[in-house]
Design brief:
220 residues, mainly alpha, 9 helices, globular
C-alpha cells in the first residue's frame, strides 16, 4: 500500500477512535489513558536516547529526566483540561491541534508539487518537510475547526481565531522540537516501540500535543 495512503487511513481510524473515546469516556477515565500514553512516549524517548548515548552517563540521565518531565507534564495537561472543563473542551483542544497537523501536511505537500521550485522551507536542517506554506495551512485548518466548535465552547469569533492560531504555532513548535531530537539521535521517525501502523512512533503522533495543551489551558 502507498505509504501516504496507509498513513492517511490509519490517521482517520485513530482520529475516529479518539473522538468516540473522548466523548464516551467519563472524566475519571481520562487520567489513566493519558498516563498510559505518557508512559509509552517516555519509554520511546528513553529507547531513542539510549540509542544515541549508549551508556547512561550523568548528562544522558539528566536528559532523560528532563525530557520525561516535559513529556509527562505536557500530556498530563490533557487530563487537567478534562477535569476542569469537561470532555468536550478536551476534544476541542485535541481537534484544533491535530487538525493543524493535517492542514500543514496537506497544504505543504500540495504547494511543494504545485509551486515552481518547491515551497519555502521553514527549517530544512531540522524538518525538511516543514514549509511556511504548510504553516499557513496549519493555521487555516486549526482556525476553521476552532470556529466550528464555537456552539460548544461559546467563544467569540476573535477568541476562537486566537485559539486556532496559538494551537497551530505552538503545535508546530512541539513538532520541530521532536524533529530536532530525531535528527540528533539519527532516526527518521520515532517508532522505537513498533506499535503504530505507518504513522511513525508514539512521539510522532503526540509531539504537537506536548506544548500546545498547556498554553491553551492557560488561555481558557
Amino acid at each position: 500500500m502507498n505509504p501516504i495512503l496507509k498513513r492517511t487511513i490509519t490517521g482517520l481510524a485513530v482520529g475516529a477512535a479518539v473522538i468516540v473515546l473522548i466523548l464516551s469516556a467519563p472524566c475519571a477515565a481520562v487520567a489513566p489513558i493519558v498516563t498510559l500514553l505518557a508512559l509509552l512516549a517516555i519509554m520511546e524517548f528513553s529507547l531513542l536516547l539510549h540509542k544515541k548515548t549508549v551508556r547512561w552517563t550523568i548528562p544522558a540521565v539528566a536528559a532523560l529526566l528532563l525530557g520525561s518531565a516535559v513529556i509527562a507534564y505536557g500530556l498530563w495537561t490533557l487530563a487537567e483540561i478534562a477535569y476542569r472543563h469537561g470532555n468536550v473542551m478536551l476534544l476541542y483542544i485535541v481537534a484544533i491541534v491535530k487538525f493543524s497537523d493535517v492542514g500543514g501536511f496537506a497544504v505543504g505537500m500540495s504547494t511543494a508539487k504545485l509551486m515552481r521550485g518547491g515551497n519555502h522551507k521553514m527549517c530544512p536542517s531540522i524538518s525538511p518537510g516543514k514549509s511556511w506554506e504548510g504553516m499557513l495551512g496549519s493555521i487555516a485548518f486549526s482556525c476553521i475547526v476552532s470556529c466550528a466548535f464555537m456552539p460548544a465552547t461559546h467563544f467569540a469569533v476573535g477568541k476562537a481565531l486566537l485559539f486556532g492560531v496559538v494551537a497551530a504555532v505552538v503545535g508546530t513548535a512541539g513538532d520541530l522540537v521532536e524533529s530536532k531530537f530525531k535528527r540528533w539521535v539519527g532516526v527518521k521517525d520515532s517508532s522505537a516501540l513498533k506499535i503504530t501502523n505507518g504513522m511513525g512512533g508514539i512521539l510522532d503522533m503526540l509531539d504537537s500535543l506536548i506544548f500546545a495543551p498547556a498554553v491553551l489551558l492557560f488561555l481558557v
